[in-house]
Write a structure and sequence with these properties.
With 549 residues, the chain is an alpha/beta fold. Helix content is 39%, strand content 19%. It contains 17 helices and 14 strands.
Length: 549
């Protein structure tokens, strides 16, 4: 690869930077740009109905600032803005934001789109980076600054004409990330000198990582530098708008907040041009996972997926943080075992989530526990045991788990696919609940103080037989009856039993481990609404697995 064509991004000279020692303690002001930046990045932009539906969803989950478009760009954008205003679709506590270039006819058209609006943010921008100045505009810094200042003056004048109390102002030095940081401060201060922010009428200075050119720590240095040197700082809202060209938009936004930013612009699932914008859902739930109220409601994350996919035509990746189909799923045996133990430990402290490999409780975003552990060729005994327990109420003994796990793995390998819970349960019964050639029909017993006499009707290779036995309990009597009848010897080495369901119709399941005369081990189960019958069925199932009866 011809790496010599590229050069490293120069670091910011900020030896006393403070942001690395800070932590995020509260949610920033959120601004969704799904309907502008996200929409303009789509192969097929949203129509009016889709935009209205998306806008309503953004309001529902808690956004108080929503950039609705670039009204001067097209009739579709203009009409959407007018529809929101004329149909009174904007709640009193929500402010829409519109974007405009620093060009006179575009600014005037933008204010026409806002006629009658109760409250709006007018977002002015022009490109300031060295590359844009030299290659695109062929303009000096002074000329670029004049463009921004002239646009700010016109916006201020038109706000007076349309009703100044209705409007808040925002300025973005576009391509801030590629702009000399001292010049970025200079041009922002020139705009602020026009708008003169006050405590009751603050101005937003948005610092877009328009093209992500460096590591997130460099962006954080840039933000801290601006926060230190911007004029009117107490009356300025520092805003971030990161892009994902290096795959670090979320990290850059988080570090930017640590560096002093007050506000974050982004989109659901990071939709945006090229590699996308900052993913607000991820940033918000990152905060949530640290015990911080994100001020956005993602308790029904599947609704966010539905509105996003139906509106954009894009799909949420199965490994997307917090929302992907597979992010709460473990296939690896060691992961499954740790999750199983963690879920069991949660009984001791249900108010504090601490489960290995799961940073948040899936229930908190509207998911359930069904897909947490899924079984394929990489899975282990712990995962299989978790599936049988959570789906079917089976508390399989540890030794039997070790016996069954490899069998599940082999079937998954042979079929070359993930096994469903039902397939695992069926395989478990097929393996350990063997009903041929010997099957228990019914039994009777007569107990004395120390012993039991039992008579058991069975079928054996299609023939009805009666077995009689005597022992210290029903299981002992049945075992002796089998050994006498079939001239075999075996020993029950392990035995456990529990109820499979709750209520009057509950069934018992019995697990046994049996050794035959050659010291070969067999695991078996028996199931019945009668606990004694489940026990003798388990013994019969083990004997059915012997090589010769």
């Amino acid at each position: 690869m011809n790496y010599q064509r590229y050069r490293q991004f120069p670091p910011i000279d900020l030896p006393d930077r403070q942001w690395p020692s800070r932590v995020i303690e509260k949610a920033p002001i959120w601004c969704s740009v799904d309907l502008r930046d996200g929409n303009q990045a789509l192969e097929k932009p949203m129509n009016l109905d889709q935009k209205i539906k998306f806008f309503r969803y953004l309001v529902e989950i808690g956004f108080k600032e929503i950039e609705v478009g670039f009204p001067a760009a097209s009739d579709t954008e203009f009409n959407f803005c007018r529809t929101l205003i004329e149909q009174k679709l904007i709640p009193d506590d929500v402010t829409i934001q519109v974007l405009t270039q620093a060009r006179e006819h575009i600014i005037r058209r933008t204010f026409e789109a806002l006629e009658g609006i109760p409250k709006a943010i007018v977002h002015l921008y022009n490109s300031t980076s060295t590359l844009q100045r030299d290659v695109v505009f062929n303009m000096s810094k002074e000329e670029i600054t004049k463009l921004a200042v002239d646009g700010a003056i016109l916006i201020d004048d038109l706000a007076e004409e349309y009703g100044k109390d209705r409007f808040l102002f925002e300025y973005s030095p576009e391509s801030f990330s590629g702009t000399e940081v001292d010049y970025a401060v200079e041009i922002c201060n020139a705009v602020l000198d026009v708008w003169k922010p006050t405590s009751d009428r603050k101005v937003i200075i948005n610092l877009p990582n328009t093209v992500e050119m460096a590591t997130p720590n460099v962006y954080a240095d840039q933000i801290e530098y601006v926060c230190r040197n911007i004029k009117y700082r107490e009356n300025v809202i520092i805003s971030l708008h990161t892009h994902n060209d290096r795959g670090c938009a979320v990290a850059a936004s988080e570090l930017g907040v640590m560096a002093g930013a007050d506000r974050v612009e982004g989109t659901l699932f990071g939709n945006g041009e090229r590699t996308g914008n900052a993913d607000i859902l991820t940033i918000a739930l990152n905060m949530f996972s640290q015990g911080i109220d994100p001020k956005l409601d993602f308790t029904r994350v599947n609704e966010a997926i539905d509105i996003y996919e139906s509106s954009t035509g894009l799909a949420v990746h199965p490994r997307h943080p917090y929302a992907g189909d597979l992010v709460y799923t473990a296939f690896s045996g060691s992961h499954q075992d740790a999750i199983k133990k963690g879920m069991a430990k949660m009984i001791d402290h249900p108010d504090r989530w601490e489960v290995p490999y799961l940073p948040i409780d899936p229930l908190d975003v509207g998911r359930n526990y069904d897909p947490i552990i899924r079984i394929n060729s990489q899975s282990g005994k712990g995962g299989v045991a978790y599936i049988l327990e959570t789906n079917y109420g089976l508390h399989v003994p540890k030794a039997m788990q070790q016996d069954f796990g490899p069998k599940v793995t082999q079937v998954s390998v042979d079929k070359d696919k993930e096994l469903t819970p039902q397939e695992i349960y069926d395989l478990f019964l097929d393996t350990y609940y063997v009903k041929e050639p010997l099957s228990v029909v019914y039994y009777t017993e007569h107990s004395t103080k120390d012993n039991v006499d039992m008579e058991c009707n069975i079928t054996y290779r299609g023939e009805d037989l009666v077995l009689k036995g005597h022992g210290n309990g029903i299981v002992d009597a049945f075992c002796k009856a089998l050994m006498d009848k079939f001239d075999i010897t075996f020993n029950v080495a392990d035995y456990s039993q529990h109820s499979m369901e709750f209520g009057n119709k509950s069934r018992a399941i019995t697990y046994v481990q049996v050794y035959n005369c050659r010291n070969e081990s067999y695991y078996a189960v028996g199931i019945s609404s009668n606990t004694a019958k489940s026990s003798i069925r388990a013994i019969a199932s083990a004997v059915n697995q012997f090589k010769k009866i």
